[in-house]
Design brief:
Three copies of one chain form a homotrimer. Chain A is α/β, with parallel strands linked by helices. Chain A has a twelve-stranded mixed β-sheet with strand order 6-9-12-15-18-23-26-29-32-35-37-38, with helices on one face. Chain A has a ten-stranded parallel β-sheet with strand order 7-10-13-16-19-24-27-30-33-36, with no helix packed on it. Chains in contact: A-B, A-C, B-C. Chains A and B meet through β19, β21, α3 and α4 of A and α2 and α4 of B.
Chain lengths: 353, 353, 353
């Protein structure tokens, strides 16, 4: 694709030779001739001088850029988003061919929309629905009465269990399990655990992305819901009856216990854990490995276990490793106070008594 | 189903009109006409006044209940268990049809019991056994010489590896891997790792439930065992040679390192980690994210990393965030003690010396 | 196999009757007649006296061993490695039969080497390559243009996504996902997240082992690389653009965030988490559950969250549970200093003023 066309498609202002051919998108350090790259963070501006890329996407407002001779600039008000769009121009699809592979097992009464791609060894259960333009990679199983919206991408080895509902443009990565049983048992007098059947609803709204080998559980009653635009990374656990708001980001290996509500725009870094029956307020941010043990007000930034405000945590955790020294100082103080007390006992009280 | 019949099946005492039709089981807040719900926790008794359910399961002993007119009560000595049984009355099965799907690959010498349901793209290896009434969902693989007991439910994309033994009524959720290689290597003089082959036994006893994408490893020698009635949640790791006792509950994302023994009735909340070659005593409880680094006596309740008694942990962790203030107080004490020391030096010793 | 032959194959010096038949390899406590076992750790030397094994592999240098009458000894300079080799002599394979199962879906233009074993319901995409002697278990999916080297073992339900490259002798356990999308989004002005397409390279070098349900992500640009000889346990997350060095050991449930570099010979115990864009130096060791929040110099041994040198962490964490007592001691000191101050005020200043 000519650089001129790339610039137009990305709504960038071109500063350089639009006739050159762009073949690939690369990182600024690996880029070579024919490559387009980007510079979204001023911190890395120094890398521009030595890049061998044919063109670089930069901020509209960037000044004093020291690009090599012959390296074109594409100026954008939002270079990181322009980079995302640029990547989209060069995607080679790996999707199964249009149509339904003959080695699949599609229930005769399933409703399959137009323009779908369904790979080999895919199962679609009785009365399930697959929306127009949806792509299902090989060896995935869509359960009975499940509903998949339009233009979804379901990768391989995914289990979309019975009656689960996915909205439009949902992406589900390999091995994710949506609608498995919640972990619910009633303890019996003899110490055994009676299973509480888990057969209620799981709803995943539009534009949600679900990572590889992530598990989203089904509750006994009510619903588990992932609201529109939320993105979930790999190996995340969403307990039964959990409600995740809109535009939430959950990084890898996060675990949310049953019946908890995570409000809109929350961000959790990797390996965060959240207890059950809690409410995590709108826009809360939790640093990696935070353990959230009680409900959190909107807008808080938590860290640690139990999760406390990041500011407090940082100050306290710096001191943690000095605990042996603090203990020693306390012991010395005790020693000195004992000595002072003894000495003072020897002192003459003032004579005005 | 008529409410009268529901009451009889659940062994509840009916207080209301037994002729009404029950269509669904719901949560007390979502329930509407035709719904049966439950009230197991006195804390939520206030919700009873406004429920629109047709009937509510309540404790035999509950007094002063303020149910709306026309809302029947089902009285049970154990309302939570009665609720579990009620859910069981209304389950719609999603299991594959009885018989063996023609798109499966069943070894001719596998022993398949009567009344099984085996879905499409299931593989059952040579000399494997599948017990009577067991259900295997699509795309699951049962390895050679594996033994599956009676009335088990194995969901999709499960790997039951060669020679693994499952008891009766075992439930394995989607994507679980039972019998993969333990993580064992012998470090060589050149720094490389020689694989220790892992080919010994994995035994899962009766009535065990294994969550989605959970992994249970096979040891080099000896066995990995999950004893009867234990329930394991999603994304849990059970290392090679681990022995888990009876009626243990392991919540999501727990990890148990190799050769550790977890005794009966232990409960671990989410993201707990346990080191290798340890013994976790009968009835131990570990709060979420606890790191167990040494063996634990029966009955302890641990929290934190390293795990310490919950009582101690709670008191200590409350103080953690005040460390900066404590440090300041120590500094002030040091300052004041220095001043006192100086002042005391100016003091007259008592004259009786 | 005769013990004499076992001794020769393991390059051990035989001390006992080489004519006896060895049937199995077992742990020293479980071993019975016909079993070979091992004693690699002097700590367990006491178990030798009561073993019922027919033969025991022991250290060349071990002295004063108290083996039962008739129990042969195999002396080796490295008994643990000899044990690993011994296990290899008795492996019963569970691999699919040689050749390509007729229930598989192999693209006509895929390049399949000689002597492969490909099980039922396996998919190999267009222009993919599978090297000589490689074994692919049932229901695994190899994406278009992926390259699998020679003598690899790919277990069931694995996703090797499009264009991923695996070297020779790579082992991938059930359910692992190699080449799923990295978790990368550009936040838009309206709060939504624009997906950054993730289509760059994933390279897994020779002799790497990847655990069950582990996920290794693909970056937008550049590559994710696992260097030769590295061993990764189950349920591990490797973020996009991560570079893992040679001979690294990552235990179960470890998570490495995007763009981080883990140098050669690093060892991370279970549930360790590493932040993004960091460098973990050669030979670093991290104890279980450590949270690595900044780059680490080679050779460090870290523990805790944030990860600090193990020595410091151990000293500090011992004191953690005594925080309530330390706080009390500070309060008492404050009280006593106040009393001293008061008393001192009553004191006669020395008369030389």
């Amino acid at each position: 694709m000519k650089l001129q066309e790339v610039a137009e498609r990305l709504h960038c202002r071109l500063d350089g030779d639009g006739a050159r051919e762009i073949l690939r998108i690369s990182g600024i350090e690996q880029a070579g001739p024919g490559d387009l790259t980007f510079l979204a963070n001023a911190k890395y501006a120094g890398l521009l001088a030595t890049t061998r890329a044919s063109a670089v996407i930069v901020a509209e407002s960037a000044r004093d850029l020291d690009a090599p001779d012959g390296c074109a600039l594409l100026r954008s008000p939002d270079p990181y988003s322009a980079f995302a769009h640029a990547l989209g121009l060069f995607i080679q699809t790996s999707a199964p061919a249009k149509g339904i592979d003959r080695f699949s097992a599609i229930a005769p009464d399933a409703a399959i929309g137009p323009d779908v791609s369904i790979g080999p060894f895919v199962v679609v259960g009785t009365k399930a629905t697959v929306g127009a333009g949806t792509v299902i990679y090989p060896n995935t199983v869509i359960g009975p009465h499940a509903t998949i919206g339009e233009r979804c991408t379901i990768y391989s080895h995914v289990s979309v269990r019975e009656r689960v509902v996915l909205g439009h443009r949902v992406i589900v990565h390999d091995g994710a399990v949506i609608g498995g049983d919640g972990f619910g048992f009633a303890k019996q007098a003899d110490g055994t655990h009676l299973k509480i059947p888990q057969h209620a609803d799981v709803i995943v709204e539009d534009d949600v992305e679900i990572g590889a080998n992530t598990t989203i559980d089904r509750p006994a009653v009510g619903e588990t819901r992932i609201a529109a635009g939320t993105k979930i990374d790999n190996l995340v656990q969403i307990g039964h009856g959990v409600s995740i708001g809109r535009r939430v980001l959950l990084a890898s290996q996060v675990g949310i216990s049953g019946s908890t509500v995570v409000e809109d725009d929350v961000v959790m870094a990797g390996q965060v854990g959240v207890g059950g029956h809690l409410r995590v307020g709108k826009g809360v941010v939790a640093a990696g490995k935070t353990g959230i043990t009680k409900s959190v007000e909107p807008g808080e930034f938590l860290t640690g276990y139990p999760g406390i405000p990041n500011r407090e945590w940082r100050k306290a955790s710096v001191i943690f490793k000095h605990l042996p020294e603090l203990k020693k100082r306390i012991e010395e103080l005790e020693q000195r106070v004992a000595e002072l007390t003894e000495k003072l006992a020897e002192c003459q009280p003032s004579t005005d008594r």
